[in-house]
Amino acid sequence: MPVGVLWINQDPTETTDELTKRIHEEVPSAEVQRAEGEVALFILAIPEAKASEGAALMMKAQQSWRWRIALRTPQRFPAVLRSLCLQRKQSNPEEFILRQMAQDAVNILWEGQEGHQYAMTIGNAGRQHRGACSWWAQGPRCLEQIQEWKQWVQ
User: Which conformational region is residue 37 in: left (phi greater than 0), alpha (psi within -120 to 50 degrees), or beta?
Assistant: First the structure.
C-alpha cells in the first residue's frame, strides 16, 4: 500500500484537484505532495548489505545539515537558545544540558523551514524505496540545492 505520492507537473491542470481527491478517497492516509514548476530530484542507491550503516550516516548528515541551516542566521540561533534557557529556568546549564538545548534550538529553527515536515525535503531522512532513498527541491535554485545536498550526503 502506498504511503505517499509525489506529483510533479510543469503547469497546473484542471484534473489536479480531482486526482488528489481520488487518491485521498482510495487511501485516506496517503501523503500527497504537489509541485508545480521547477523541481529537482536526487535518488541515492543504498545496497541492502549497507542499509544500517547508511542509516547511521544519513542521520549524521541530517543533523549536521540542520546545524548548518540554523547557523546561516547567526542572530536567530542564540536568541532561540536564550529563550529555551529562560523557559527551562537554566541560568548556568551544565555542558550536557547546554548541548541538548542547543540541539533543541537547531530543531526549532529547522521547523521554521518551508517543507520541513516532508521526508523528501532536503535535510530530512528522504523517502525509502526499493534499496534507494530520494529527496527533492523546488523553485528557481532547486538544481543547485539538490546538488549541494548530494555532495553533503556523499
Answer: left
In a 13 Å sphere around the CA of 98, the CA atoms on its Cβ side amount to 7
Neighbours of 58 (CB within 10 A): 18
- Residue 140's SS3 state is coil
Q: Which of 114, 128, 120, 127 is nearest to 146 (CA)?
A: 120
* C-alpha span between 38 and 136 (Å, rounded): 11
21-58 residue pLDDT tens: 887 788 787 777 666 668 888 888 888 888 788 888 88
pLDDT for residue 51: 79
- Report the alpha-carbon distance of residue 92 to residue 86 in Å, rounded: 11
Structural domain boundaries in the chain? 1-37, 38-153
